[in-house]
Amino acid sequence: MPYTVIIPKPVQKQLKQLSPEIYQRIITKISQLADEPRPAGVKKLKGFNNEYRIRIGNYRVRYEINDSELIIILVSCRHRRDVYRD
Question: What is the pTM of this model?
């Protein structure tokens, strides 16, 4: 059963600031998360219960997985130098 991917407004804003080529690559990967929430190369982030990140070139997508409700919530999508700063 596929997961539902939720992209909050702040993450949508981050995505809109990307170049069209990078935007398309990231959207493709995000849509694949619905079928496979923990794809090859995913890293579980230390210090967080259900937070993971995937790497797409120089960009990182951080997201939380709620297995009981089959939901994935994107936390951020930024360049690797900025993604871990809050």
Answer: 0.90
